[in-house]
Every structure is written in C-alpha cells, then in structure tokens.
C-alpha cells in the first residue's frame, strides 16, 4: 500500500524519479532489472504518444455519439455546446499548458531514442519566426518532443520564444484530441492560424512547419537523406508577408525510427497512397518498428535511434505585403542553401559520411 501511495505521489508531483523509486520497491524478479524497467517506461511513453494521435480523436468521437444514446446524454450535450463555443480557439493562438508541456512522461519519451535539441544561433524575442522542419519521418518524433514539450529545454535555450508546431487542421475537429494538442502549443497548419500567431500575437512566436508534409513521409526510410522542398514555396511567401525570419531545422535520425516499404513512383501502390493522401490529409505508409519486448520482432515501437534536431541560423526576411514571384524564389533559394549548409556542417557529427548528400526534391 505504501508503495502504491508513493507512486501516486510521484505522479501528482510530476517527478519521474519518485515513480521509478516506487516501482523499484516492488518485489524484484530476475528478468526485470532497473535498466529494463526504465526502458519499458520509455517505450510506454512513446506508445502512448502514437496511440493518442492515431486513436484518441476517433475514440472520443464514437464515445461522444454513444453518450447521446444513454442516460449520460447531458454530459455529451454540454461538451458539444462547449465545442461549438470554443471552435475557433485553435485558430486564435490555442490554449497551451505549461503543466502539460512539462509532464514527466515527455522525459521518458525523450530518453527512449534519445532526442536532443542543438542550438546554433540566438533568436531574438523581438522577432517572429517560421521554422522549416525536415524531414517529416513517420510520426515527427523530433518535432513533437522539441517544440511541443519542454523535455529538451526549448524555453531555456531560447528564452522569450514560444514555439507552435503546425499540424493537420482536421485533428482540431475531433473532441478531446484538439484540447490535448492545444495544451502542447500545437496549432492547425492553415492560413488563419498562422496569420494570427505572426500578426496578432505580439513577437517571439515561432511557427514550426513540417514543410515536406505527408508527401515527404512516403519517402522516409533509414539511410535516406531527402526532403520535399523544391516546389514548396508557400511558407516563404507567408514569411515575406508577415516579416517573419526563416529558420531551417534538420533532424538527423528522424528517418531511422522505422523501416518502410517505399513503392516506386508510377507504381499502382504509390498511386493508391497519393490518392489516399489527398483524401485523408495524411499518407498511409507501410512501415514497421520493433516489438515491445524484443528488437528482433516487428511492432509499432520505433527503433532506438538517436534523433538530433539542429536549429540553424535565421534568415532575416523583410515584410512585403504582396511579394513578387522573383522575390519569393530568391528567398526560397536562400533557404535551400541554408538548409544544405546546415546538413553538410553537422552530418559527420551525427553519424553520416562526408560524402553523404542532402537531396532536395
């Protein structure tokens, strides 16, 4: 009983060491060492993230509909009324929670891979920024951990800067999932939401856009260093219109988390993936990781591969209400060159060869 109370106390205080200490007081087993217990806690923290984003929204919607058919219909009605009243909040800066961003579970999440945030230059709180995040990977583990939690110490490394990771707007139409995402500072990747953050929310805002999007996730696999960027110019135009500086970000190891079957362009399977991507907003990838208890088996758990997210040097962008096409092209080229330079500078430090190149598609 004392052990359970100690564990509960650890959860309330948010101290992972208290939780771990309480668990270690349980009767020991020869097959469960401290290191294995910690690793299992880390794997569970990653699995809850995956299952939350895959199933929470759908499960909550089904539950809400079901409650309307029961004696608890009033609870469903009250929440639905609140949902209608609160509908535009995601597009107006959201509702981030410092408490949620500092949950202990994110420290376990970080340490599973592990994930690190590398700062290369100072960012001024008097400016707004658009971070271009590359590559997408399967689940954007690096983007989520670094910019939607405080596990890697973003606020300490960049004081005065508020990161907002932009993701599919459709996620914010699903009950509970929308609130969960907003608590981490996640926002819809649409014009209204980003306009609000960069024009009506003061300065010190950093909107993180995974530029390659769902299309890029179809080409991510271990050993591949390619980004979908050549024809992605919308974020550059937006930066010019708002006078927000562009910051290239590259996560070494993001593509190593899962193994994926990549179908050739023009093949029947690739066409199916493209059509479903347009219909659903995300790409149905055929991938696998390892099992929960063994790295030799297949499963949903990602491989333990380090993810090192390097935040590059900001590109100063002037404010131009209606930027001409040649101006957009010029800053787009500057961004590509800056990203390539960032990749080349740090690639050998994080396990790549000097001869490895970044392919911009």
How many angstroms separate the termini? 58 Å
Total domains: 1
What would the principal axes of the Cα set say about the shape? Answer: globular
CATH topology call: Glycerol-3-phosphate (1)-acyltransferase
Count of individual beta strands: 12
Rg, nearest Å: 21 Å
* Overall pLDDT level: 90
Give the H and E element order: HHHHHHEEHHEHEHEHEHEEHEEEHE
Side by side, the strands of the main sheet go 1-11-7-2-5-3-4
Provide structural commentary.
The termini are far apart. About 45% of the residues lie in helices and about 15% in strands. The protein is α/β, with parallel strands linked by helices and about 350 residues long. The N terminus is likely disordered. The protein is globular and about 60 Å long. Strands 1-11-7-2-5-3-4 form a 7-stranded mixed β-sheet, sandwiched between helices. It has a single domain, classed as 3-Layer(aba) Sandwich (Glycerol-3-phosphate (1)-acyltransferase). The longest helix has about 35 residues. Pfam families: DAGAT (PF03982). Pathway: Lipid metabolism; Glycerolipid metabolism; triacylglycerol biosynthesis. It is a multi-pass membrane protein. Belongs to the diacylglycerol acyltransferase family.
